[in-house]
Amino acid sequence: MTVDSLQEHFDDKVKREVTIEPRDWMPDDYRKTLLRQISQHAHSEIVGMLPEGNWITRAPNLRRKAVLLAKVQDEAGHGLYLYSAAETLGSSRDEMMEQLHSGKAKYSSIFNYPSLTWADMGAIGWLVDGAAIMNQVPLCRASYGPYARAMVRVCKEESFHQRQGFEIMLTLSNGTEVQKKLAQDALNRWWWPSIMMFGPPDDNSPNTEQSMRWRIKRISNDELRQRFIDVTVEQAKILGLTPPDKDLKWNEATGHYDFGAINWDEFWNVVKGNGPCNKERLEARKKAWEEGEWVREAALAYSKKRSERNNKISAKAA
Amino acid sequence: MNQNSENKILSTPNSQFLIPNSILLLYTLQIADNALIIGHRISEWCGHGPILEQDIAATNIALDHLGQARSLYQYAAEQFNALPAEDKMKMFSSTTLQAKLTANENIDEDDLAYLRDGWDFHNVLLVEQNNKDWAYTVVRSFFYDAFNFFFYSALLNSADTTFAAIAEKSLKEVTYHLRWSSEWMIRLGDGTEESHQRMQDAVDYLWSYTGEMTTANETDKTAFASGIGADLAAIKTAWKEKVSAVINESSLAMPKDAWMQHGGKDGSHTEHLGYILAEMQFMQRAYPNMEW
Ligand SMILES: [Fe+2]
Ligand SMILES: [Fe+2]
């Protein structure tokens, strides 16, 4: 087949909603875009373990401790599914790690904000996992098969996380004055960063159009953001908490909530590395990787030794 | 006061065993505190492991330990709440716990984990030692898992049906823990020169904390004599056999018999425990009497 007919075949598959699989021909740009997106997504899961991991040893009771541990462990699992999906596009995990550590690969900026109190475990689950679900449910139908299948597994667990987070918030908002204050404070700090999780506005999102054509992306940033706000404002009412946006109000005509201006200056600065925890997060990941090097080397050396020994034994036996 | 409120009477087909309630409670706490503290230590790895798959495995193991701790604390709280008021007041010295008792409140698993002071913790010193690196963590787990395996196996036959039930549930997990840590002992002991050295250092360093597990204190003696507890002398032999077999296979050197550290089971700890508790108990101490 010529490149032209390969391209035609690919386009046709995408149009007919037949998933693209690792062995199928795909345009270079499609592969690159996917690899960038999936590895960025995988990195987000792994870096995302840090702000919540920060409270594992300080969880307020044994049940919460167990639930939080299991939650952060789930995120590691998500990272694993996603790295595996990315590997099918021809990149190794070591390569991807190297790109994360050098700053070449990005991860979701939300994790560059600090988790300061226990209530942040509620707010992160409720808002951050909540926003992640909004983003990720449409990805379950992404045109690339391994990515779509990984997202199906991820989404199931994310909705569980979202409910657990909401439940922490609910307990706090039904609690004492100081607990209510903890909950409101966490909402104040996580609200805007969560809304920014949907990425730049559509008129400033250069990759969106191509991703939509490739059916990697299905719904635009602004539309997802609006959906999230509409749902979350109602949930905040149940909690008796107030999102920190004085312009937030129901618009009868549009059937959506209007909201105030987003601080895109802050967004781009956090992306560029100037967020409150960018340095710490990267440093923690690098430290884990560097201090784990001797372990990975030894595991490799041992498995080589063992297979050599087994070969010798089977050679003797033969 | 009748016999029942003072002593737990356990029937077996052949005989009746007696153990003072306070000793049964201390024995329960010894086991529970081991599980809580080692689980806490292992959970410190979550998000920082050397290999993503092992981050997940370590967290799984931490969760198992935490689950065991919870079952045991629930049992301990039940025992505690059944004690006569004056015995309760004598049991723990923490002012926060004392306040609860004065208010005539029952305590629960969380009160035991979060409101006891360090000297009322009865875990062995081994489990509170810090993670340092993956080698220390693996060796600490291995020494403990090998003990735990024989310990829970023995507890299957406890005259106390709650212990027997917890042991049965835990033994599957503990068997897996021992396999996991044994495999890492061998992999790293027989891996590279660096990993071998790190493992030997960890084995030598932690060795003096191993004796306590199989040395009976008064609580252990009473529990064993009453048919409730494990025979630590028998476990000592089995433990040493298992440990030397794995250390051998890891091509590591078995440490020579040496002075062993003691005290944890009776509430006299290393400096580490204070920091663990400061961190772990922070929320309950800073914001007492709240639902989370
Ligand atoms: Fe996730
Ligand atoms: Fe999640």
What can be said about this structure in brief?
Chain A is an all-alpha fold. Chain A is built from 13 helices and 2 strands, in the order ααααααααααββααα. In chain A, α6 (119-136) packs parallel to α8.
Q: Mind sketching the topology for me?
A:
The complex is a heterodimer of chains A (318) and B (292).
Chain A: H1 3-15, H2 28-47, H3 49-53, H4 62-87, H5 93-102, H6 119-136, H7 145-173, H8 177-196, H9 208-213, H10 221-239, E1 249-251, E2 256-258, H11 264-274, H12 278-291, H13 293-317
Antiparallel strand pairs in A: 1-2
Chain B: H1 3-6, E1 7-11, E2 16-20, H2 21-43, H3 52-81, H4 85-91, H5 95-102, H6 109-114, H7 125-128, H8 134-155, H9 161-189, H10 193-206, H11 218-225, H12 232-249, H13 271-280, H14 282-286
Antiparallel strand pairs in B: 1-2
Helix pairs in contact in B: 2-3, 2-11, 3-9, 8-9, 8-10, 8-12
The structure holds fe (ii) ion (2 copies).
Q: How does this model look, in words?
A:
The complex is a heterodimer of chains A (318) and B (292). Chain A has 318 residues and is mainly alpha-helical. Chain A is 68% helix and 2% strand. Chain A has a two-stranded antiparallel ribbon with strand order 1-2. In chain A, a hairpin with a 4-residue loop joins strand 1 and strand 2. Chain B has one domain (19-286): Ferritin, core subunit, four-helix bundle (Ferritin), CATH 1.20.1260. Chain B contains 14 helices and 2 strands. Chain B has a two-stranded antiparallel sheet. The two termini of chain B are 38 Å apart. The interface between A and B is large, with 50 and 47 residues. The complex binds fe (ii) ion (2 copies).
Looking at how many chains there are and whether they match, the oligomeric state comes to heterodimer
Instruction: Detail the poorly predicted runs of chain A.
Output: none
Distance between the termini of chain B: 38 Å
Overall pLDDT level of chain B: 94
Shape call of chain B: globular
Helix vs. strand class of chain A: mainly alpha
Q: Quick one: biggest sheet of chain A? A: 2 strands, antiparallel
Number of strands of chain B: 2
Bound molecules: fe (ii) ion
Q: Would you list the SSEs of chain A in sequence order as H and E? A: HHHHHHHHHHEEHHH
Order of helices and strands of chain B: HEEHHHHHHHHHHHHH
What's the number of helices of chain A?
13
Overall helicity of chain A: 55-70%
CATH homologous superfamily identity of chain B: Ferritin, core subunit, four-helix bundle
Percentage of β-strand residues of chain A? under 5%
- Can you summarize the main beta sheet of chain B? 2 strands, antiparallel
**Strand percent estimate of chain B:** under 5%
